[in-house]
Design a protein that fits this description.
heterodimer; A: 256 residues; mainly alpha; MetI-like fold; 2 domains; 10 helices; 82% helix; B: 265 residues; alpha/beta; Rossmann fold; 10-stranded mixed sheet; 8 helices; globular
Chain lengths: 256, 265
């Protein structure tokens, strides 16, 4: 138990400390200008001094991420069910989905901005667009991979389609859905930042842009770390959801 | 009047049913006919892939036949009847349910998951020696234990007919012998009729009242062999002349050994 704690905590910390040391030394020895690479203490100072700003802008980005992700879940799950259960729908829309996925979302962002403006709506649309795909693909794959014997067992008992779905297909697909959601939430953060880059007057992405344009590199770095923290937090929320459903999921080794 | 009557059952899988790789329709079952009585345990014996499983699915109403008739308990089977039990080759338990809830699954589908059902589930699990594992998850059990849970699940709704598709084929020899005895004990308690698909000659002879031997695909009934060995049976029986004689007849019907008549002077 103790050795596992050491492995899981001490080694990562040592890695971070090592990189920080190299960073400090580089700034100190080579004398890199702050505009190019601020030393960690300057970033930390910026973090503390502009904490309120980072928090309020971070909250905006967090909301965009979370709402867009939830929207992707709400739309993606029923669509996945439809695509997985109906061959015509599958044939009609699956190629379209793949085509949509191969379009770089950044390329769509300016258009979405024209359609939906610079407010929350355009961010939600972009987040939805990037988060939706892994959810629908993984869920559909999960629903289609229901063990044939379990379906036959249900049919042999004259189960209704709703019973088959709720008691067999959905629980069997749950590990896949969780995997899709985990991929989707990390993409959702990226989507929110893309949205803010392309057109926004708030959020961490906007703060990052405006800080670099004002040559306030320490603040830009602080915003960057705030974004990383936000990503970890969002992922942890999905992880919490997963643990809440733990009794439904197969044992850990079978999970991704 | 026999409990189950199969007459000239034929099944041809169309190309569409087989998937895109198939070039022509496959005749899985050519002409399968036999009868069995209520409470009988009938082994369907034949080479792998000969269509025995297809026949079992037709009797269960899971797939449509292309011709012939299947009547069980006076009803012509065209769709699942809801009162049959299924045991597959793999245990096919639900990993997200514990042992008890896996066994109760059919009762949930039939909307009869009441106190009596739970009592019955406890009884069945006791019968197969799994009373101590009610809240265990399938992955915590061995293959044999999982298959015993699957057996309980198949019996929970007191089916009139138990359809078993090579249920012990994936188990090791010793576990399989234990499971054979367990099945006979359960059959004795529940009085259910059983159709048991296997490709083990000795398992077929050991378990059944009657062995129906199928030819290679397209399957036809090559021979019906009544097994008159007395129940309850024990593994000592395997070393008796009557047992090996029955095995020999089955082997001959399968074409594994040449007919005895040719050797008799």
């Amino acid at each position: 138990m103790r050795s596992r704690l050491v492995l899981q905590l001490l080694y990562p910390l040592a890695g971070v400390a090592l990189i920080l040391a190299v960073w400090v030394l580089a700034c100190w020895l080579i004398n890199i200008p702050t505009v190019v690479l601020p030393s960690p203490d300057k970033v930390l100072r910026s973090f503390v001094l502009r904490g309120d700003l980072l928090l309020s802008e971070g909250w905006i980005t967090f909301k965009e991420t979370l709402y867009g992700f939830l929207l992707a879940l709400v739309v993606g799950l029923p669509l996945a069910v439809a695509v997985a259960n109906s061959r015509p729908l599958n044939l009609m829309f699956y190629p379209l989905l793949i085509a949509l996925q191969s379009v770089p979302k950044v390329a769509l962002a300016p258009m979405i901005l024209v359609w939906l403006g610079t407010g929350l709506e355009s961010k939600l649309a972009i987040v939805w667009l990037v988060a939706f795909f892994p959810i629908i693909v993984d869920t559909a794959a999960g629903l289609r991979s229901t063990p044939k014997e379990l379906l036959e067992l249900a049919h042999s008992l004259n189960a209704s389609p709703l019973q088959v779905f709720l008691k067999v297909q959905l629980p069997a697909a749950l590990p896949f859905i969780v995997t899709g959601a985990k991929v989707a939430i990390t993409l959702a953060v990226i989507g929110a930042v893309i949205g803010e880059f392309v057109g926004s007057s708030e959020g961490l992405g906007f703060l990052l842009l405006s800080a670099t344009s004002q040559l306030d590199t320490p603040l830009a770095f602080a915003a960057l770390f705030a974004l990383a923290a936000l990503g970890i937090l969002a992922y942890a929320l999905v992880g919490m959801g997963e643990r809440m459903m733990a009794s439904w999921l197969p044992p850990a080794p079978a999970r991704h | 009047m026999a409990f189950g009557t199969l007459k000239n059952v034929r099944k041809v899988f169309a190309v569409e049913e087989l998937g895109s790789t198939a070039l022509e329709p496959v005749v899985a079952l050519d002409d399968a006919s036999f009868e069995f009585d209520a409470g009988e345990l009938v082994a369907l014996l034949g080479p792998s892939g000969c269509g025995k499983t297809t026949l079992l699915r037709i009797v269960g109403g899971l797939i449509a036949k292309s011709g012939g008739s299947v009547a069980i308990g006076g009803r012509e089977i065209t769709r699942p009847m809801g009162d049959y039990g299924f045991v597959f080759q793999a245990p096919s338990l639900m990993p997200w349910r514990n042992v008890l809830d896996n066994v109760l699954f059919p009762m949930e589908i039939l909307r009869k998951n009441d106190a009596a059902a739970r009592r019955h589930a406890h009884e069945l699990l006791g019968l197969v020696g799994l009373s101590g594992f009610l809240s265990a998850r399938p992955h915590q059990l061995s293959g044999g234990m999982q298959q015993r849970v699957a057996l309980c699940r198949a019996l929970i709704h007191r089916p009139r007919l138990l359809l078993m598709d090579e249920p012990f084929g994936a188990l090791d020899e010793l576990t399989r012998m234990d499971m054979n005895d367990l099945l006979l004990r359960i059959r004795d308690e529940t009085k259910a009729s059983v159709l048991f698909v296997t490709h083990s000659i000795s398992e077929a002879v050991y378990l059944s009242d009657k062995v129906v031997v199928f030819s290679k695909r397209p399957a036809r009934v090559a021979k019906e062999i009544p097994i008159s060995l007395p129940y309850p049976r024990s593994h000592k029986l395997r070393f008796t002349a009557a047992f090996t004689a029955a095995e020999r007849i089955a082997s001959e019907a399968l074409g594994v050994v040449a007919p005895a008549a040719e050797e008799v002077p």
